[in-house]
Amino acid sequence: PALGIGSTQISPQDGMLLNYIPAGTFQMGSESESSDTQPVHTVALDAFWIDQTEVTNAMYALCVADGDCSPPVSTSSYTRSSYYGDAAYADYPVISVDWSQATAYCTWAGRQLPTEAQWEYAARGGLAGAIYPWGDEMPSCTLGAQNGAQYEPCSPDDTLPVASFAPNGYGLFDMAGNVWEWNADWYGSDYYSSSPPENPTGPASGDFRMMRGGAGFSPESSLHVAFRRAIAPSDSGTFIGFRCALSP
Q1: Residue 177: which H helix or E strand, with range?
Q2: pLDDT, tens only, 79-95
Q3: 0.90 surpassed by pTM
Q4: Helix-helix angle 99-108:57-66, to 10 degrees
Q5: Tell me, what DSSP letter sits at residue 248?
Q6: CA 234 → CA 99, 146, 204, 205, 209, distances in Å?
Q7: Torsion of CA 206, 56, 217, 133, to 10 degrees
């Protein structure tokens, strides 16, 4: 059958369900966010696959068991003394991994970290100009909500199991909130003004890598699909995770 929105495949390496994102053109960035999200510019992307959820503790443990990944920097979470390696949190997003650890996992799984452009295009779920992955409605802490996200005012002040809220238009969960997600790109504050119009991959070098999506402790503004956060690639934290992508 022809591939399209709703097409999925299962990774034989980690059991992750990947969703197909069709080729297309979108307006990347926002004129109402910080200056590094400007100017809004047209980006064309080839089709790709992306993980339906954030990589979980159980999935990451498979890579560690194979010797291709190092354990998270911490096995606790923000409020839980036992998190990674605890069966109760197997389906929660892995956290406390730096950029190199996330990259190593995606390589082991036969995938790679998504570029910023891929991530934002996927997060938008086919909605042109929307503020959040679901549209413009303010986020809700209600489990299963179409506009749901785990962020600053929600309880507990920690992660939730992946897919605790409704997916976006591309069938992707937690593109806003729960944990920050590493992207492949180096950060460039003025990169958008010179970004290639097709399949951009970010600056050739830099001091910081990109994260997207916001997290459980993040304010509402961090959940915006255009919001960018730069951080040292060696940093890790109790609200930093990732998902992988796959280019056909």
Answers
A1: none
A2: 999 999 999 999 999 99
A3: yes
A4: 80
A5: -
A6: 6, 34, 18, 15, 9
A7: 80
Q: What is the pLDDT of residues 170-206, one digit of tens each?
A: 999 999 999 999 999 999 999 999 999 999 999 999 9
Reading the block at residue 177, the tokens are 């909130």
Distance separating the N- and C-terminal Cα atoms of the chain: 16
Q: How many other C-beta atoms lie within 10 A of the C-beta of residue 57?
A: 25
CB 178 within 8 A of CB 162: yes
Cα 58 to chain centroid distance, Å, stands at 18
Residue 153: count other Cβ atoms within 10 Å of its Cβ. 10
Percentages helix, strand, coil for the chain (3-state, rounded to 5) are 15, 20, 65
H helices of 92-139, in order, are 99-108, 116-124
Other beta carbons within 10 angstroms of residue 100's beta carbon come to: 14
User: 114: which 2 tokens?
Assistant: 């998504």
> CA distances (Å), 88 to each of 6, 117, 141, 243, in order?
30, 34, 22, 21
